[in-house]
Amino acid sequence: MSNAGQLPLVLIGGGGHASVLADILLRQQRNILAVISPDDISGRAVFRGITHYQQDDDVLQFQPDQVRLVNGIGMIPGSDIKKLLNQYYLSLGYRFETVIASEAVISPYATISDGAQIFPGAIIQAGTVIGQHSVINTGVIIEHDCCIGDYNHIAPGSTVCGQVETETDVFVGAGATIIQNLKLKHQAVVGAGAVLTKSLAGTEIAYPARAVIKSIQ
Ligand code: JB3
């Protein structure tokens, strides 16, 4: 049973990212009509009872004004499948739902753009703008007055300090820290656990110090 006035949803993808989205949406009593995934989804309990289609064009049975899509394919550096699917469906007149977990903390003075996905435990402070179709993953802190571009992925537990600006397709790895006032250009990547103290040009990668692994004996 969907919330009154909210359109039913079709979830694109049936893997880990999609399962977290389904979990958020089901807790919000949203009606997920179908999961679209070429792979078997029966191993994930969260999808139990939801119709499974395997072809992307199975979405076309739903009228664009009768449903909203949710892109459940994770954005990882070097993979553009999420964005390609978004653009395909957008070109057909479909729109993507903005998903905000009930357990996220969003300032009323922040702006969350269409299709963005804000996961549980995320904190978005005043003056910040989250771009279209960007993912702010579990437990992320986006401090005040940031401008996060479209199609970014800010991975779990990372911290973006005040007045940081990112362009499109930026990836910030799990547990990374970006200090205040930095600018990250198109397709910049910050590796998991990195502490970024200077701005990044486009397609640059900031690598963290790596753990040294030695055997105990
Ligand atoms: O690390 C975290 C917290 N999340 C990661 C996320 C950002 O990216 C996660 O651990 C994964 O690394 C990744 O999540 P994702 O995309 O859910 O990965 P995976 O579990 O491998 O699921 C990929 C899903 O996309 C599968 O259900 C595939 O069937 C589906 N898929 C692949 N190509 C597709 C297509 N689905 C559709 N509809 N169309 C496709 O072309």
TrEMBL record:
GO MF annotation list: acyltransferase activity
The UniProt record lists the keyword Transferase: yes
Domain of life the protein comes from: Bacteria
Domain PglD N-terminal span(s) in chain numbering: 9-74
Keywords: Acyltransferase, Transferase
Documented EC number(s): 2.3.1.-
Binding sites annotated in the UniProt record for acetyl-CoA: 153
Keyword presence, Lipid metabolism: no
Pfam families linked: Hexapep, PglD_N
Active-site residues, record numbering mapped to chain: 144 (proton acceptor)
Swiss-Prot/TrEMBL site (Increases basicity of active site His) positions: 145
Similarity comment: Belongs to the transferase hexapeptide repeat family.
Name of the featured protein: Putative acetyltransferase EpsM
Organism of this sequence: Vibrio quintilis
Gene giving rise to this polypeptide: epsM_1
